[in-house]
Amino acid sequence: MPQSVDLNVKTSSPPARQNPGAACEECRRRKVRCDRQQPACGLCSSSGVQCQVTTPRPPRGPKRGYLKALQARIATLEGTLLQQQQQQQQQQQRQNSNNHTITISPEENSIESITFTEQAPLTWDFPITTDGDTTLRDLCQGTAPGTASGGSSLDGGSVHASTSPIQGFETPSDGVGLQEALLGRKMSEPLDGLDGINISNLMQADLDQLYFDRVHTFAPVIHQRRYFAWARSMAKTEAQSCLRYAMWTLAASVSAHYQNIGDALYRYTRRALEGLDSKCMRIATTEMEQIQAWLLLAIHEFMCVDFKRGWVSAGRAFRLIQLNWLEYSDGPDGNLTRTDWVDMEQKRRTFWLAYCLDRFVSVRNNSPTTFSEQNTIRLPAPETEFQNEQPTLTGFLLDAVSTRDAISLSTFTESIVVATVIGRALSHRQQSMIDNLYLNETRDFWERHEWINALLIQRMEVFSLNYPLSAQEADPMLLFISMMWRTTVLYMYQLLKTIVHPTDEKRSVLSDYTRQSTVAAKEIVSLTNKLSQLNSFKVHPLTPIPLSLCTEFFVSYHELGDTYSKQLQDITEAMHGLMSFSNLGLGLGAYSR
Questions:
Q1: CA–CA distance, 198 with 37 (Å, rounded to integer)
Q2: Distance between CA atoms of 132 and 448, rounded to whole angstroms?
Q3: Which long-range contacts (CB under 8 A, 24 or more apart) does 332-340 make?
Q4: 296-355: per-residue pLDDT in tens?
């Protein structure tokens, strides 16, 4: 019979490979397996070494919360430095302002005694709340909030408290963050979230750098150090936040890496600016950052969205400048104090950027300009002096345009000069249309035309002396300015074609302008071929304007012959190439003559 098997009998488990416990120091040093025998392991017994076991062992790496405490300490030191800087500025203001005492005599109804007292010195530009024992002194001497964990939002992530292992530097343990425990109000946020997109601190820094590398060249309106000073502050105004979003929007549009967040940034920026406009309806003045944000957003819309929307956004900035015109005007003696000069210089540059945008787009659309060249705003200072905060007294526009000396101007000033000359050509065209409407004599037309053409030739020669052709081809800003000079020549020729008839006595004069314009068109084609040698993300965003005007020149005037078909093909290919980065040329097609 088969034997029965007892199922209740448990099979014995295999013996453990080694005894429980920690390995001895000798086995750890030799990196061998320790059998953990007591009182001495086998290796120590055979080698005659004292067997030592260390328990418990200290954990590896820094202590828990150590890094967060260091970050919190850095934040505290930055706050202390900010406080000291503001106190120094306040002391300077008190030193510069004297106490004035005026006396009013009751009998003579004259001034006898009015004392102007100074305000108390400011320590922070935002209120500090004192919850319990948490005071500003505690913040600077020991108590500090935790730092953000993980990625941040557009202006900084949430801040959480953590216990610091550093002696004398303990953080609150109730979970209250820096903004809630120490600040009476949080940093201004114009609107709700950015469509769920989280932009980390590293991305923010990268977008800032992209802006100053690729956008600031043709829109040099922002002082870098001052921007980074308020951008890192938690007390930004809504206008400053909108400006930062607009800068990021433009930076994303000239970067292949951030194309995926460009649309979300644009929508958020536009909503924020529109919301800010609705809040500022009853405010007497408009912050400069709000106007700068509208200008940058308009440039982005010209490039990536729609011409009509960009033109409307630019118009908002133009009207805001006109509403605050006195803040942008200069007197005969410029203010060269260090602090006020930089702020005034930023306002000057903001106006001149709007001035150039107004004329460059108006000449393509043949619409009246918004700003007059008859203004009392000084030209922008050189970029180096501006960024280094070195007060420089510059001249006015009419002096720079009318001078015959080969004075080297900055690229920004050169763009202002060419915008002024092409604006005069536009005004000349509009005046000639009025003269034709009322059948006025054409003598004034020829005087204006010859005056503008002489100025045009003179300024082109000065520009060529200051910037050789090799320099023009290597710099996107100079390349655009050079194209705009030659585009002005084409514009003047097209205007002349509408006035001079085949039987006119001035027909011989037209032939001279024809030769001048054909040379200018060929030079534009030559400059266009240099676009392929430049980084496409660094090409001036308004480059499609001279290219489209040159295209119209070749298409409209067939008497120039078929030899220009190759030049037309080159310009057309360049236009299609730029449409990958800017739809301005395509958008302007509906507004051509």
A1: 56
A2: 76
A3: 334/378, 334/393, 334/394, 336/391, 336/392, 336/393, 337/391, 338/389, 338/391, 339/89
A4: 999 999 999 989 999 999 999 999 999 999 888 887 665 666 558 999 999 999 999 999
Q: How far apart are CA 427 and CA 419, in angstroms?
A: 12
Q: What is the pLDDT of residue 559?
A: 53
Contact 336, 393 (CB under 8 A): yes
Question: Please, are residues 481 and 463 in contact by the beta-carbon 8 Å criterion?
Answer: yes
What are the structural domain ranges in the chain? 62-81+121-186, 201-328, 349-591
Region of residue 48 (left: phi > 0; alpha: psi -120 to 50; beta: else):
left
The kind and range of the H/E element at 27 are helix 25-30
How far is C-alpha 40 from the geometric centre of its chain's CA atoms? 71
Cα three-residue angle 487-491-492, rounded to 5 degrees: 120
Q: What is the pLDDT of residue 183?
A: 35
Tokens in use for 401?
A: 């345009």
Residue 218 CB partners (closer than 8 Å, separation 6+): 415, 476, 477, 480, 540, 541
CA distance 231 to 244: 8
Please name which of 317, 335, 434 lies closest in space to residue 371, comparing C-alpha atoms: 317
Report the alpha-carbon angle 498-499-503, nearest 5: 110
Task: Name, in order, each residue with C-beta under 8 angstroms of 144's C-beta and a sequence gap of 6 or more.
Answer: 69, 72, 73, 75, 76, 164, 169, 171
Task: Count CB-CB contacts under 10 A for residue 417.
Answer: 20
% the chain with pLDDT above 90 = 35
Amino acid code (one letter) for 443: R
> What tokens appear for 477 in the block?
């800003």
Q: Around Cβ 146, how many Cβ atoms within 10 Å?
A: 24
Distance CA 541, CA 537 (A): 9
The strand pairing partners of 103, in sequence order, are 112
Q: What is the pTM of this model?
A: 0.67
Q: How many Å separate Cα 317 from the centre of its chain?
A: 16
What is the spatial distance between Cα 306 and Cα 300, in angstroms, rounded to a whole number? 9
Confidence of residue 406 (pLDDT cuts 50, 70, 90): low
- Give the residue with greater pLDDT, 589 vs 84: 84
CB 222 within 8 A of CB 165: no
Amino acid at 21: G
